[in-house]
Write a structure and sequence with these properties.
Length: about 80
């Protein structure tokens, strides 16, 4: 069940819960930024109110996190 939880500067928690709905995921990368978007398909809400998330991460931080994740997964024993 895809979902996203964020906490803003004011400490408020915001959640997007996609439930069992089908989602569309796109990843775009430039030399500087990785952008990940997730949108609920078939959501009847107007386009400006559909359940969606958009995440922009500096590419060097994304690459570092993926490298660490790969190292952790390589340490698991079958």
């Amino acid at each position: 069940m895809p979902h996203a939880i964020i906490r803003g500067n004011n400490g408020r928690r915001h959640e997007v819960d996609f439930g069992d709905d089908e989602v569309h995921v796109e990843v775009h990368a430039s030399e500087e930024v990785v952008e990940i978007s997730v949108e609920a398909l078939g959501d009847p809400a107007p386009s400006d109110k559909r359940r969606s998330i958009l995440l922009n991460i500096p590419r060097h931080l994304f690459s570092e996190a993926m490298g660490k994740a790969a190292q952790r997964s390589g340490k698991r024993k079958p």
